[in-house]
Amino acid sequence: MVLQCSHLAILVLLLSVSLTASSSIEENFVQCLSFHSDKAVPFYQSIYTPKTASYNNILNSTAQNLRLLVPSAPKPEFIFTPLTDSHVQVAVICSKKLGIHMRVRSGGHDYEGLSYVSEIEAPFIIIDLAKLRAVDIDIEDKTGWIQAGATIGEVYYKIYEKSRVHGFPAGLCTSLGIGGHITGGAYGSMMRKYGLGADNVLDARIIDANGNILDRETMGEDLFWAIRGGGGTSFGIILWWKIKLVPVPETVTVFTVTKSLEQGATKILQRWQKVAPYIDNDLFIRVIIQPATSAANKTERTIITSYNAQFLGGVDKLLQVMKESFPELGLTRKDCLETSWIKSVLYIAGYPNDTPPKILLEGKSTFKNYFKAKSDFVREPISETGLQGLWQRLLEEDSPLMIWNPYGGMMSKFSESDIPFPHRNGTLYKIQYLSLWQEGDKNAAKHVDWIRKLYNYMTPYVSKFPREAYVNYRDLDLGVNKKNSTSYIEANAWGNMYFKDNFNRLVKIKTKVDPENLFRHEQSIPPLPLSTMRLKDNKCKTWE
Ligand SMILES: Cc1cc2nc3c(=O)[nH]c(=O)nc-3n(C[C@H](O)[C@H](O)[C@H](O)COP(=O)(O)OP(=O)(O)OC[C@H]3O[C@@H](n4cnc5c(N)ncnc54)[C@H](O)[C@@H]3O)c2cc1C
Ligand SMILES: *[C@@H]1O[C@H](CO)[C@@H](O)[C@H](O)[C@H]1NC(C)=O
Ligand SMILES: *[C@@H]1O[C@H](CO)[C@@H](O)[C@H](O)[C@H]1NC(C)=O
Ligand SMILES: *[C@@H]1O[C@H](CO)[C@@H](O)[C@H](O)[C@H]1NC(C)=O
Ligand SMILES: *[C@@H]1O[C@H](CO)[C@@H](O)[C@H](O)[C@H]1NC(C)=O
């Protein structure tokens, strides 16, 4: 309800603005761009206004959450798709100079659409990095420079083109834009072996609030720390990441084994909670949980749990590991598929077998849905009673989905403050909750309400003080910045959930690098208000 009301208010605002000022905002921006940019690469073809035929196509192109594309959702004044790093730089300078609020989009997977919708400020524009997608892999050096608009699938493919025994440990979904993805952590099926994408970043190029392009050396270690997990937008625009490649074996094994309630799913899942975070680091077994029609009785629904796994090795070794550690799942050789690392990437991403790896170059999404999602971290196995209550709730909802993702291994070896991503040792697994719906479903509000109630139900079973959440699964229910976002005290609540104690350091760095809060959205890291900064200079220790 609250969301819809604010939609309406902003729509009215937008309407009044576009009647009076829309063309002049665009004209001023174009003028400013022409003035500041070198003339080598023209940008005129890269500005899409609502009058441009392809405006809606460009807006929709990478937007993953259709919930934020409905007609009532606020729309950008125009979309700028820079063709060079210097175009992005000039766009930042001009947004600042003209006071035009900008949103930055790389892959468009933000769960709350913050890269293409602003609920708090109108008018706004989108700087869409989709055309900046170079991937430059150096196998000898075991590194790569990858540009923000590239998808993680393109990165995987470009590594595979040069070597069958190298990879990169990041997201499962291959259409993720690395610009946003790595800023929040970036986990995937090799996290138990190598940690997160953000744990494997060596350098970066970023545009700061003054329009300067900085690398690790010139930005300094504080800012370099903040951008590796502190969330998208807050500290500047990432242009490039320099990543460290990791070794992968020539043979990788994958499997998916499904158990329904009738097949003892509850007991097996109880066992998984105790085993999956401690099993061999080469083995990643996630669990996808959803209702389905019962095989025994087509008029009844049951819960099915799918154990979807990647093992960095051959089937013989895998069967041995499973026999020793997790015989309850009953994995057999027939369930397993030996393949290459790149094909295991396609398998886990949900592509049909035999899909050629080259499809990764198309950057296509396999997801696009109307959805609302949330996350939790679990530190103690959930009891059988807890699971039974969960099944009941899932059975009440049309199209819910949960994904349980095991931690442990390398994830526990990093300290909570190595990078801003704090969910480390002691975390057994992460839960992702989703409710999905279709176009035309009149019950959107009901689905959102359902997932909020489920989240309440889970309170006793998940991490506490703070209840942790994954910043890349952005959830505006946890709190939003006010328009005049010097509201760092309110931000403390969601800040601690995403970053634990690292939030304080993120606020300090933000205050230093972007005190005027140029780079902002509903949940960007707020700078300290100027008054508090003065207090701090007077040796007031409240914020230390
Ligand atoms: C279908 C699906 C599957 C997913 N799977 C995984 C997964 O396996 N592992 C995982 O860790 N996460 C996963 N995520 C979450 C994902 O990591 C985040 O949504 C991530 O922020 C997406 O980055 P993006 O560039 O695609 O999104 P965008 O929406 O473009 O950006 C996300 C945020 O970062 C900001 N941003 C974008 N580009 C830049 C930039 N160049 N510099 C600074 N800020 C920027 C945006 O303004 C926005 O706030 C998944 C999401 C979806 C929708
Ligand atoms: C963009 O997406 C919205 C939401 O799905 C849809 O209503 C609209 O028709 C789409 N427009 C284009 C041009 O694809
Ligand atoms: C299937 O389930 C329905 C609803 O619970 C029940 O009424 C029906 O008797 C069941 N049919 C069989 C064959 O068990
Ligand atoms: C993780 O925590 C446990 C208990 O809290 C401790 O025994 C273990 O040594 C820690 N592991 C690492 C790698 O720090
Ligand atoms: C933002 O806060 C400052 C300082 O409290 C105040 O002077 C200013 O008027 C506020 N601006 C808006 C738009 O509310």
Automatic annotation (TrEMBL):
Question: Which biological process, per GO, is one annotated for this protein?
Answer: cannabinoid biosynthetic process
Which UniProt keywords are listed?
Disulfide bond, FAD, Flavoprotein, Glycoprotein, Signal
Q: Where is the signal peptide?
A: 1-22
Provide the cofactor list for this protein.
Answer: FAD
SUPFAM superfamilies assigned to the protein according to its UniProt record, in alphabetical order: FAD-binding/transporter-associated domain-like
Q: Which organism is it from?
A: Lupinus angustifolius
Q: What is the designated name of this protein?
A: FAD-binding PCMH-type domain-containing protein
- Span of domain FAD-binding PCMH-type: 72-248
Any one Gene Ontology molecular-function term assigned to this protein's record = FAD binding
Q: Say if the entry is tagged with keyword Glycoprotein.
A: yes
Similarity annotation:
Belongs to the oxygen-dependent FAD-linked oxidoreductase family.
